[in-house]
Task: inverse folding
């Protein structure tokens, strides 16, 4: 969910008031490329201008939105100022408004200069919107039309019903050891889990494509772990009621996979058809991954999960996460002057919702505690003890011993070497050996 | 903190128990429980040990119903290859039932065993056991039954009476 800063009520309005009888005929060429990257949308009474590529979104008066749109349409500053003045019902100062947006960070001037230089060399001034080729919006729309949403709802009911009525299909952490070797169990499950994680993010991207929102699908690394993410920040450019599909799409993917896995396991149990034994056990592990994925999206609200995006959208908030954090911090501890100023700049609506939204953060924490106690801790404790026992009583001809060595090596590399490298880098910087 | 404390001493108390395994019990502690299928087997000291130590362990029954075992367990279901005793013991420690069949078991019987194992998918592990001289053995924590041939009624009775009877501790005060 993109974070939208509400400007202090007087700030941009002041900038829009006439201070000097000065109107610039043309805008600086540096602004031209930046304007092409600005999205303008309205959200009820609020108007949002933003730079998805910079991740900056600002709430502005209607006159400001009209001013930007006029510039984007190729009008001169004078004409855009005139249009904004009509809407505002008073003379406005377009130059100061542009300066105000620059002060808020909407124009990243040095990079615009670089961009202008680059585009001048290439001769192109087209806006970069990264559409992922291969899937047409028409095809994407079929995955998020009425039939599809009915399917997602039925999958949800089916999966929930099975978990409720068939306790034997409910997951336990034991299911993660679906092979007799614990390391092999987790290693063989890893590509499946990664594929499903990629599917979750791809569904967000498809949902964005279905409603014409440019989205970027990225693959990155968090330490040694592969991570997938979808950037749909430009969703602020569409009305709120159309955003739910994009936010819920990933969860829909998880629910469908969960329903299919549970359905196949039920059919296997009831003799409808017989799966290979290893596949039934793998599906049990998949059920865990999907349940945890769905629980995570609704529990990790404080990490701006998909569930947070849905709720913040429904509550018509722009910066609810930050408002809730600051409200909670003020209640439990104290806030700094800068944080107090930041909180004051957040809209009254967001601050009002934040007063009780922290309770949902707490509920989410309880959900994460359930995950920890039911799955993560038992799994981790068992693995640690297994590794410990194998290293304490080594057998050099044992696969288990060498697997234990590998686990320790990776753990040390992941959790100890990185801080050591950071410490070394800091030390070298202090003595001037590293720039 | 209060919630965490309640959780760790209540529903998730087994987390502490997973750190140490189970302990031996005198034969009289639980009794022969004549109402239950099969026969009682003395429960051995059952700590978590390494793979090497499990291979060197000596058990008091074939197949074992307790004893030194591995700290991780296994998913229930059907296995086409033999499963180490260190895993089946931990599975029984979690209240599951193991159905062992000898290498000489006919394919038709194995298919029937497979069907029963699938029906009790959350409770049963089915696996071949080369150390069995013949027939089928059913094991639960501290309990064993031996069959010369497939007997669905007897297998079902064993599973239904003994599943979840133990999970790092006895879940019932008395069996009969």
Result:
């Amino acid at each position: 969910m993109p974070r939208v800063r509400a400007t202090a009520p007087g700030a941009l309005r002041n900038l829009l008031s006439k201070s000097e009888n000065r109107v610039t005929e043309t805008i600086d060429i540096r602004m031209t490329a930046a304007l092409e990257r600005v999205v303008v949308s309205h959200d009820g009474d609020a108007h949002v201008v933003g730079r998805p590529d910079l991740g900056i979104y600002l709430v502005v008066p209607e006159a400001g939105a009209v001013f930007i749109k006029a510039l984007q349409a190729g009008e001169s500053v004078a004409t855009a100022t005139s249009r904004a003045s009509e809407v505002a019902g008073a003379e406005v100062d377009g130059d100061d408004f542009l300066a105000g947006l620059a002060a808020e960070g909407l124009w990243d001037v040095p990079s615009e200069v670089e961009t202008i230089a680059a585009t001048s060399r290439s001769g192109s001034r087209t806006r970069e919107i990264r559409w992922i080729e291969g899937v047409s919006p028409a095809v994407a729309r079929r995955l998020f039309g009425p039939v599809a949403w009915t399917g997602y709802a039925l999958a949800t009911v089916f999966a929930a019903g099975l978990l409720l009525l068939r306790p034997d299909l409910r997951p336990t952490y034991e299911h993660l050891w679906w092979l007799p070797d614990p390391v092999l169990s987790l290693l063989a499950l890893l590509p499946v889990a990664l594929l499903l994680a990629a599917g979750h993010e791809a569904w967000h991207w498809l949902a964005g494509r279905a409603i014409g929102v440019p989205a970027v699908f990225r693959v990155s690394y968090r330490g040694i772990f592969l991570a997938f993410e979808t950037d749909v920040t430009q969703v602020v450019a569409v009305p709120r009621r159309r955003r739910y599909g994009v936010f819920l799409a990933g969860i829909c993917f998880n629910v469908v996979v969960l329903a299919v896995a549970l359905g196949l396991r039920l059919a296997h149990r009831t003799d409808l058809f017989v799966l290979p034994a290893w596949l039934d056990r793998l599906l049990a592990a998949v059920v865990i991954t999907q349940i945890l994925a769905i629980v995570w999206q609704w529990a990790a609200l404080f990490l701006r999960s998909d569930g947070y995006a849905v709720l913040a959208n429904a509550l018509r908030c722009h910066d609810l996460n930050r408002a809730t954090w600051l409200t909670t911090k003020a209640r439990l501890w104290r806030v700094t002057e800068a944080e107090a100023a930041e909180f004051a700049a957040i809209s009254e609506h967001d601050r009002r919702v934040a007063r009780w939204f922290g309770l949902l953060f707490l509920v989410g924490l309880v959900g994460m505690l359930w995950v920890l106690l039911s799955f993560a801790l038992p799994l981790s404790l068992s693995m640690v003890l297994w590794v410990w026992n194998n290293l304490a009583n080594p057998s050099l001809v044992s696969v288990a011993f060498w697997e234990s060595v590998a686990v320790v090596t990776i753990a040390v590399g992941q959790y100890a070497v990185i801080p050591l490298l950071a410490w070394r880098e800091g030390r070298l910087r202090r003595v001037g050996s590293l720039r | 903190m209060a919630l965490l404390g309640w959780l760790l001493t209540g529903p998730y108390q087994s987390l502490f128990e997973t750190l140490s395994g189970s302990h031996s019990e005198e034969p009289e502690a639980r009794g022969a429980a004549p109402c239950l299928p099969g026969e009682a087997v003395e429960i051995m000291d059952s700590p978590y040990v390494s793979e090497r130590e499990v291979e060197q362990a000596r058990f008091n029954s074939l197949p074992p119903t307790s004893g030194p075992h591995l700290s991780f367990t296994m998913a229930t279901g059907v296995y086409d290859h033999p499963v180490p005793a260190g895993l089946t013991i931990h599975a029984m420690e979690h209240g599951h039932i193991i159905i062992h069949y000898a290498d000489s078991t006919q394919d038709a019987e194995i298919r029937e065993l497979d069907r029963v194992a699938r029906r009790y998918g959350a409770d049963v592990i089915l696996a071949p056991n080369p150390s069995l001289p013949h027939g089928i053995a059913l094991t639960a924590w501290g309990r064993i039954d031996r069959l010369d041939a497939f007997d669905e009624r007897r297998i079902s009775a064993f599973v239904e009476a003994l599943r979840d009877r133990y999970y790092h501790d006895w879940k019932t005060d008395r069996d009969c």
Notes: The first strand of chain B starts at residue 39 and ends at 40. Residues 64 and 85 of chain B are 7 Å apart (CA to CA).
